[in-house]
Amino acid sequence: MSHEYVSDHEHDVSAEYLYPSDADVLAIHDDDDGRLVVEVATVCPECSTTLALAAPVESVREVDVDLPLDDDYYD
Questions:
Q1: Which helix (H) or strand (E) holds 8?
Q2: Rounded Cα–Cα distance for residues 23 and 52 (Å)
Q3: For 22-56, what is each residue's pLDDT tens digit?
Q4: At residue 42, what are phi and psi to the nearest 5 degrees?
Q5: How far is residue 23's CA from residue 53's CA, in Å, rounded to a whole number?
Q6: Which of 1, 10, 39, 69 lies in disulfide reach of 26, CB 3.0 to 4.6 Å?
Q7: Cα separation of 51 and 42, whole Å?
Q8: CA 48 to chain centre
Q9: What are the residues whose beta carbons fall under 8 Å from the beta carbon of 29, sequence distance 6 or more?
């Protein structure tokens, strides 16, 4: 894949092609407005370029998951 394609390519991300096992948390921080933001790294499914996604936290709830996460969570 050429560098020109990767640099001109718009990375349309869709939940259909993103999986927890393909992502890693880069950072958890507050933005300028005091909202919690989670940044994750994943790959573009079209060109395999590593992408950093920033997601503001819109809800918080309790879950029945043991940390660290095990492989059963991703199945």
A1: helix 3-8
A2: 10
A3: 899 999 999 999 999 999 999 888 888 899 999 99
A4: -150, 180
A5: 10
A6: 39
A7: 5
A8: 14
A9: 36, 37, 39
- Tokens read off for 75: 């199945």
Please list, in sequence order, all residues whose beta carbon lies within 8 angstroms of the beta carbon of residue 73, skipping any fewer than 6 positions away. 20, 65
What is the rounded distance in angstroms from the CA atom of residue 2 to the CA atom of residue 6? 7
Report residue 73 CA to chain centroid gap.
Answer: 16
C-alpha dist (Å) from residue 21 to 7, 24, 33, 65: 25, 8, 30, 16
pTM of the model: 0.67
